[in-house]
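User: Hi! I'm working on a homework problem where we have to compare a predicted structure to a textbook description. Could you give me the structure for the chain below?
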Amino acid sequence: METNKTSVYLKIVDEIKRRIALGIAAMDERLPSCRELALEMGVNPNTVQRAYSTLEEEGVIYTIPKKGVYVGGNAGDIRRLAKEKIAELKAAGVSREDIEKILTEVYGR
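Assistant: Happy to help. Predicted structure tokens:
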């Protein structure tokens, strides 16, 4: 990961939004704690907390004190936006195979 802390927390924000858009994390599903995710990603827990704060401000996640962090109501908006972008590509004449290639380039195998 990059050493720039702003970039790291934004990468975490983007990763969580990606998981939601792909349906990996569903509405009201519990997310890892700050400490758990920090260990998983090899970053400082404060960096994860900053990402979670940003996501909470955007309504993407919500926190229940002493219970955890959960995917919020705007999760559907992220998934809807992803579908809209794919529909735009399709309408522009981009084939399914090309969209799959793009997804593979972005996300890897």
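For your comparison, note the following. Residues 5-21 form the longest helix (17 residues). Strands lie at 30-31, 61-64, 68-71. Good luck with the assignment!
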